[in-house]
Amino acid sequence: MEIARIVGLALITTLFLLILRQEKPVMAVVLSIVFSVVIFTLMMEKMSAIIDVMQEISRKAEINNFFLGTILKILGVAYLGEFAAAICQDAGEQAVAKKVEFASKIIIAVLALPIMIAILESLMELIPK
């Protein structure tokens, strides 16, 4: 099972981090970043499968590709923002992590605007004048 490998790798990394944080805190941050990149790389195939399924459903439902693309961008911003914030927190930079989270939320709101406008326009067409 893939989750067992990830949990095992996480536990081993955690043990090394506990030791390194006492002796070489900079190396602990580097190890944490390397672990994060490894997990991210392992999950790329899963993320690709999710995108493929969403594209197939979108095609079958005859949904405009613009909306699917926007939703995928929003998901990407959310995941990358959280990923970057977690790395910042691991490095002890909570203030930087909060700024990354804030920026991610603003970018998501901007990306969602066209979808919100389309929904509102559709609702306005349904309302009798």
TrEMBL record:
Regions crossing the membrane: 31-54, 66-86, 106-127
Instruction: Name the UniProt key words of this record, in alphabetical order.
Output: Membrane, Transmembrane, Transmembrane helix
Domain of life per record? Bacteria
Q: Name one Pfam family in it.
A: SpoIIIAC
What protein name does the entry list? Stage III sporulation protein AD
Native organism: Thermosyntropha lipolytica DSM 11003
Q: Lineage of this protein's species?
A: Bacteria, Bacillati, Bacillota, Clostridia, Eubacteriales
